[in-house]
Specification:
Layout lengths: L13 H4 L6 E3 L38 H22 L18 H22 L9 E15 L3 E14 L7 E14 L2 E8 L4 H9 L7 H23 L16 H11 L17 H12 L17 E3 L2 E2 L1 H4 L1 H8 L8 E4 L9 E5 L5 E13 L2 E9 L6 E6 L7 E7 L4
Antiparallel strand pairs: 1-2, 2-3, 3-4, 4-5, 4-12, 6-7, 8-13, 9-10, 9-13, 10-11, 11-12
Length: 420
Amino acid sequence: MKKLLSCLVSIGVLASIMTSFGASSAFNPNIDPNDDGCLANSDPACFKISNINELDVDDNGVVSVENNRIKKVIQDFFDDYEYRIDNADLEGMQYDKYFSSKKGNKTTLNIALIDTMLYQNILSKTNHYSGQRIRELNKSITYNYTNITKNTDAALIDMYIYKTFNYNICPSIESATMDRYLVKMVLENGEWKIEFIDNFISEDILYSLKGQGVDLDDIISINKYKESILSNIIKYNEDKKNESSITAIQSRSSNYNANNAVAYANTYVFSPNPNYFNIEGIGGDCTNFASQVLNEGGGIPEHFGYHGYNNCWFYTSSSNRSTSWAGADYLYDYMHSNNSMINFNDSNWSSVTRGDLIQVTYDGVNMGHSMIVTSIVYSSSGRADLLVTYRSTTNNHKKDILLSTRGSEDQRFMHILGGV
């Protein structure tokens, strides 16, 4: 049996998170999308440091000073990180300001991975296929602290960050991300410092790095990958320029409604449909979500069969569904089999459109992640990027984000026929 690499866990409390966010941080670049951006951290028109506007109090109404000191360090770090991205500052992030000075191996590796993602984020936006520098405008960040557990000199923080923004190359669309982090902190010389941030990099991106030969336990391997990021982005852009469009040939009737599929994706990405079980610990939620988009959103009929089989595609309950419904690799195999009732053509970056399916393979063979195309981004020279929406691990749900910001990975494109 093929190894199921489908996106991992999705929690059942996301529906309530949207109404429970606490402290907010508003980033208001308020700049021309084509200029070079903010020039200084002190420019209030470009960047607003977050304020903790909801203080922790105990049952007697006494403010928890330590909890709010902890929150300030965390929010200052993430604010600084966003500022570096906004200003394409590859070298200005001062990790020593936020992280423990007693850097064990885990802290050192954690910083290296976080810095590598900073490089990838910046370089993918400053070397974009469109020729423009990609910026996130009208940015608003909200912090929600689910739990803070601490003793005299250590703390563990379970938190979510919800971010909304508009890309400068498609300013009419609001993009959003929801990320969960587990932050371990220690008290050093009277100041709280970060020891490590778990889940900073989502599971699907970690799989992608491993698939590209990165040893996540070796600082040399991580730094070597970091040095290759720019060349990988350039190759990614060149590959897109050399692609030819694929003409879709419809082989049988189809009533797929792509507009409804996209609407479903963007409705349920952060607040999952309660009629479906969140696939926790048994494969993940990305393909479960993609199947819902194709079926409930787009109107593709289910192909009923027997529970646990892959020659069908259906969901009746968590204990009565096909493997193809929630497993990325199984869905790919089903769609490419003679049994498939999903009308599609294999496609590419140049040809897919709204409502289409993208899958990612981490080993060149097995599919490990599923995403829905929600919009096509154009520049003066033509197609510039794709917006995608997906659910994934507990810390990683995305709405209308640029596909290119995921970095270089092995993607498969499937155009669903009959779309309107």
